[in-house]
Write a structure and sequence with these properties.
elongated; three-stranded mixed sheet; mainly alpha; MgtE N-terminal fold; magnesium (chains A, B); CBS-domain; homodimer; Tetracycline Repressor, domain 2
Chain lengths: 456, 456
């Protein structure tokens, strides 16, 4: 969490990585220190992501644990896992000692069960140990799983002067003081103060006179995404976490929320693209296959569905072969419209700005799809009419295109709303899921309507 | 930016909105005050998003400008625009007086040119006016366009005691003190202090002894997205903004970055779904059409392309009708694979973790696509063989499926990398763009390979 030793210009170059590898090879610890000490731990982490496991471990063991503990938190998850394998429980415990309780708990949670015990048992600072153990008990997706125990707390009965004295001690423990939390003797949160308020106040004032009551807070069991929404909406940089009795348990800071928001966005983006699980472009081919193949298989099944439908209409074929040549167009339009409307709904749900009844939504999307559909259909009609000279066929194809687009829009709107009501992440509705179902339905609708109009 | 007067439980109910509308109708200002004063400005903004323009304006004119100025910053952009139309330049100036310089500048920038002048001329606080005018000059997408002038600044020559005295004054101006910036007499940034450091320090210590040098900073012309990356990477809550001579101009706080990150994520998500421009589900049908139709039109053109290709292969048709029934499957697979691989690259580029040469990327994607393709092709082969009993056709279709998937993967990987090199946002490469081009290419490849294998 340090703001020091870095500026925007850092760039990870081949040369730099090569230089580090060289120094490790030469066991030139002195030079290596000189080189790496210039960098922010987040940058050293980027360098270590590029070297091999032994080299990374070498650096981790070389630098002092104050730096390396921070580096560990910034490493690629899979690389960190492998580095930790190379460290003894005692060595990991030393790293953990240096970390804030929330980061410490996150690292320990990544370890295999049996090692977790061992590492915890090696933590010397008893209070730190107890706090970490407490955090390990909370579900990762709750406020409790995200919060840190580090915070500055004062009692309502204290004076400003007394406060200043007391918090000098506490503040040294806390990387950043956002708010000073004021509690009563039962440790229940009754309000907050900013350091600013304290500095601006007179020394003999009572805290109870300065405290700002009804401060924002979250319950320890609140969902992380809800915490993120609240902090973003109210521009909070820290929020206290209370238990059901309003006892102050910890605090969540905005930098953790920034990470939550980024992960959320990436997850939704990948789901929309038909990728499950948190993979990135540097993962192994096997990991990427596991994330991508299931959705492709869904597409395959959908394609086979489309095949069966078209085969079913084979008889009309010899007369109107042209109909079949437009199936990719129909499928594409059905897919695109479905993805567009579902994406808008999914995003609206994420921002809580989907208001009004489901029916109004569907009516609006129907009008929207109809408008787009008619515009597109006119072009298609003209194209078929001019190139094929068959006005009936042109008419049949265009009319069914409009119908297909409307239905696709309705499905794209309804499915995410339905999933959301059922408590399922609507984001899975975008991408391949919608495309595939709309492909099939669209093609079926298309042939059915065209057949009717052409009276085959 | 206040942390007061709200907690996570706020919920926007029909009843509440109805109650507000009632009180406005009855001109019951006293009750309206009582009701709304309970809420955080961000919640009042949500309420005003739900009432009609006159009602919203009524509330804005009723409440004191300290609250309403914050409400304005939280309103839906289009609603804010309409509300501001109902306010006189003087009234807007009063709102602006209450806002931090960055929010003030944002509001003014949304006004039509001629009104901007008028509003600025009505700002009474001359310093505030000068600072806002300065901010208006910077490009919205740069650090200068995002920064605020409010910050706490001390000179290296001061003592801790002197500092404390001096910053009491400045601090009252600043919503939150993240860092105290230390400058020399030329106003050049030489480092920073935290309030914590100051509190923990002795009164007679010189600032120059406490200052933390090489602090992070950004240049006033740096791109907003780069600023966001730096602040997220280094977990910064505020970063100073310097001009080319390292003179301290302002600071950017994390809550603005949170907004930038959210907007970025939404833009990419929408692009991937074939939606351009910043629209949300509550926008008008016309706005939504403008955002969606162009991509659908692209799909239409692609579909016509597919039609022409299939027509070109019509002669082979009577013998192998079955080939045509699989075109939707081929198109779907080509599209899905393309979107998957492009999404991973786009995301990798956004996170700066696309390393190594383009060739390695393409080779990796080729292997990945080949692996997925073969697995899928085996299923398809068995299906066709079993259901149609034509082993040659089954073989032809499966082999071309593999080829199509590999090419689709390569295009999905190459196009975003290419666009990025050209300085174009690679996000436009996902979604309809890739799907459409892959549809056409896939179908062409499919018929061509199948034809060869079947020796037609």
């Amino acid at each position: 969490m340090s703001e020091e030793k870095e500026n925007i210009q850092f760039e990870l170059t081949k040369e730099l990585v090569g230089q580090v590898k060289q120094l490790i090879k030469a066991n030139d610890d002195k030079e290596l220190h000189k080189l790496l000490d210039e960098f922010h731990y987040a940058d050293i982490a980027e360098i270590l992501d590029e070297v091999n496991l032994d080299e990374a471990t070498y650096v981790i063991k070389l630098l002092d644990s104050e730096t390396t503990s921070d580096i560990l938190t910034e490493l690629d998850e899979d690389i960190r896992e492998r580095v930790l394998k190379n460290l003894s429980a005692k060595e990991i415990a030393e790293e953990v000692e240096e970390l804030d309780t929330d980061d410490a708990a996150d690292i320990i949670l990544e370890l295999p069960e049996e090692r977790q015990e061992a590492v915890i048992s090696h933590i010397e600072d008893q209070e730190h140990k107890a706090e970490i153990t407490e955090l390990l008990a909370y579900d990762e997706d709750t406020a409790g799983g995200l919060m840190a125990k580090e915070l500055v707390k004062v009692y309502e009965t204290w004076t400003v002067a007394g406060c200043m004295r007391r918090i000098r001690g506490q503040a040294e423990e806390v990387t950043r003081v956002h708010s000073i939390y004021v509690v009563n003797k039962e440790e229940k949160l009754i309000g907050r103060l900013s350091l600013k308020d304290l500095i601006v106040a007179k020394n003999d004032q009572k805290i109870s006179d300065l405290v700002k009551v009804n401060v924002d807070y979250v319950n320890v069991n609140d969902d992380v995404e809800d915490v993120a929404k609240v902090m973003a909406k109210y521009d909070l940089e820290a929020i206290p976490v209370l238990d059901d009795n309003e006892v102050l348990l910890g605090r969540i800071t905005i930098d953790d929320i920034v990470d939550v928001l980024k992960e959320e966005a990436e997850k939704d983006y990948q789901l929309a693209a038909g990728i499950t699980g948190d993979v990135d472009s540097d993962d192994s081919i096997l990991e990427l296959t596991r994330a991508r193949l299931p959705w492709l298989f869904l597409g395959l099944v959908g394609g086979i569905g489309a095949f069966l439908i078209m085969e079913g209409f084979q008889d009309t074929f010899n007369k109107y072969a042209v109909l079949f040549f437009f199936t990719p167009l129909i499928a594409a339009m059905a897919g695109n419209v479905g993805v567009q409307s579902s994406a808008i709904i999914v995003q609206g749900l994420a921002n809580d700005d989907v208001k009004g009844s489901v029916n109004n939504r569907l009516i609006k999307e129907m009008l929207l799809a109809a408008l787009n559909g008619v515009i597109l259909a006119v072009f298609l009609f003209l194209f078929v009419w001019v190139t094929k000279g068959e006005i009936n066929t042109a008419f049949a194809i265009s009319v069914s295109l409009v119908a297909v687009i409307i239905v696709a829009g309705l499905i794209g709107t309804f499915v995410p709303l339905f999933l959301d009501k059922r408590g399922i992440d609507p984001a899975i509705a975008t991408g391949p899921f919608i495309t595939t179902s709309n492909d099939i339905l669209g093609i079926l609708l298309y042939f059915w309507i065209a057949k009717m109009i052409l009276g085959i």
